[in-house]
Amino acid sequence: MPVERAIRFARRNRARLHLLDSGHTRNDRLPALELELELELELELEHVIVDLLRRAREIPHTTGH
Predict the structure, then answer these.
(1) Does residue 18 contact residue 36 with C-beta atoms inside 8 Å?
(2) Per the count of CB atoms within 10 A, which of 10, 11, 53, 60 is most buried?
(3) 0.70 exceeded by the pTM?
């Protein structure tokens, strides 16, 4: 995919874009890609946990009687 097209797509969709200087297979960039994916997953997990905690506080608690 031409880089200009990827940049336009990311801008139009307000998406984060990571550009890698690599060959066609990107095998030489696997360690960096692995780290980036791990960081993205950790960030998403943090967002899910915060959202669940916020929702849990909104649920009325009963004493069980």
Answers:
(1) yes
(2) 10
(3) no
Domain contains 29? yes
**Cα–Cα distance, 3 to 14 (Å, whole number):** 16
HEC readout, the chain: CCHHHHHHHHHHCCCCCCCCCCCCCCHHHHHHHHHHHHHHHHHHHHHHHHHHHHHHHHCCCCCCC
On whether residue 65 sits in a domain, the answer given is no
- Per-residue pLDDT tens digits for 44-65: 999 999 999 999 888 887 766 5
Q: Kindly state whether residue 9 falls inside one of the protein's structural domains.
A: yes
Asked if residue 27 lies in contact with residue 21, where contact means CB atoms within 8 angstroms, the answer is: no
How many separate domains does the chain show?
Answer: 1
